[in-house]
Amino acid sequence: MDKAALFHISYGLYVVTSTKGDKQNGFIGNTVFQITSKPARMAIGVSVDNYTHEFIEESQAFAVSILNQDVDTEVIKTFGYKTGKEIDKFAEIEWKKGETGAPLICKDINATFECKVIESVHFDSHTIFVGEVVSGEVIDSNIPVLTYEYYRNVLKGKAPKNAPTYTEGSTPTAPNNEPKYVCGVCGYEYDPTVGDPEHGVPAGTKFEDLPADWLCPLCGSPKAVFDLKG
Ligand code: FE
Description:
Radius of gyration: 18 Å
Helix content: 10-25%
Largest sheet: 7 strands, antiparallel
Bound molecules: fe (iii) ion
Shape: globular
Order of helices and strands: EEEEHEHEEEEHEEE
Number of strands: 12
Structural class: mainly beta
Mean pLDDT: 89
């Protein structure tokens, strides 16, 4: 089976959140889809290893915040590559509590909605939670939504390891012949012809010449976890 065939399925990227007692947590998910419209029912796929999984099981509710292309990579970094067991993912971002108690992200979001779980289907590594939509709000529809393709091709990211679309060792390929260094944690590809201008690294800076304290702009890992791509 050519796994590359699966990369041609289109997906969006979402912050899927839930609550448990007075805590909230969330992760970057791509498996979010509508099943019916009357009533509106949605399904999400969640890894059983994901900390948010136990929040959804406990509260029987979840919320989805639909990311747009302006998303700050800090949001991807925090929700996609860190665990809520160690940090409060909501400490640095704008959010509000929804009517189910699940947190809703307020910035770089096109729309949000909340669901009450009506069915859970368990597979070995993932659960599909089906929910009835209980609230929804359009925040900003002027900026295109963030698709998985845009994330892979423009932001140069790959799936966090709990995502169903994660593939061991797969990284996107840059379109020129310069040597490329790839983050061993998130798959971000450093391109010397582009540099990292957002963090003060001008275009044309070789990987070797990056400051020692430079961090992967996508997941925050140090230079040491980067490998030269063959
Ligand atoms: Fe990284």
